[in-house]
């Protein structure tokens, strides 16, 4: 029991540390990548103790600035909900990170300890629920600000979430038919081997490429990222639901956004790209190789650490994709955003589900 509590506390602390550090690091990445695309320098001077370090001290300077900036609350807002609104997305974003499995269960003295804070058999449904609830923070921010631009931003975010969650949920039903489970650990274990005599990794993206395509688009909409950031729409809504916020309350929205980006990127990796499994090198092979010179317990720890590194590298690819798309594609008009969700993605998701159901039924009952 003591060991279980220790492992749980360590995994929880690791998940929260990752979730809390995603936002400051991504602000630096976005600025550097934006500068690279636009042929500018970007942040490169703010360092630590006199060392510039490519401007990596900039997120620390931003945090200090936001902490000491005046926390002004307009007199005409609904104060309770105005204060509550930024807490909701940040808290839910950090909770979503704890749902992700960070590695294979560690074996110690014959007992297996899962590297997942919330190891539930409903799997990614909990993460879906958390991502869906985050819209309440945006909607409350828009309504409580008592500002027409903020209210329009909150309404846009609510309509956008509802529109794209349908396609998102339907895109993952074929994977449930393929894997036969909702448990993320079991789904990742399923992808640990190879296809076609070792030519391809046994990843979900090769079983359900249409689901991957639809899901990838919908996570951009779920996180209010370009080209789907109509809730902010600076050119027409002057920052939308954020217009009355400043200082740390303003930054909490982005902490939640980046944490949810990380969580949904992690879910994409777990469902479609093998999670923490190394391509062409199954976990069993890795563990046996390490046991020859490390012993059983230590080999399990090292294998879990390697798996965590592999998972983070895969997630970083999608985080970089978020940044690249932001500075590559223009923002949609609102009618275009709705058309993409209802006219294109939803029928494609339904057709994909129908075909996948027929194929799964044929293979099972032939």
Tell me briefly what this model is.
The protein has 366 residues and is mostly helical.
Q: What fraction of residues sit in β-strands?
A: under 5%
Number of helices: 15
CA distance, first residue to last residue = 47 Å
> Uncertain runs with pLDDT below 50, 5 residues or more?
none
Description:
The chain is mainly alpha-helical and 366 residues long. The chain has one domain (74-365). The chain is 67% helix and 3% strand. It contains 15 helices and 4 strands. The chain has helices spanning 2-37, 58-68, 79-84, 87-97, 124-133, 135-144, 148-179, 184-190, 204-207, 209-222, 234-237, 247-272, 283-294, 296-326, 334-365; strands at 106-108, 111-113, 194-195, 200-201. The strands form 2 sheets. It has a two-stranded antiparallel sheet. β3 (194-195) and β4 (200-201) form a beta hairpin. α13 packs across α14 (296-326). The termini are far apart. The model has no long low-confidence stretch (mean pLDDT 84).
Keywords for this entry:
globular; 3% strand; 67% helix; 15 helices; two-stranded antiparallel sheet; 366 residues
Secondary structure: elements and pairs:
Elements: H1 2-37, H2 58-68, H3 79-84, H4 87-97, E1 106-108, E2 111-113, H5 124-133, H6 135-144, H7 148-179, H8 184-190, E3 194-195, E4 200-201, H9 204-207, H10 209-222, H11 234-237, H12 247-272, H13 283-294, H14 296-326, H15 334-365
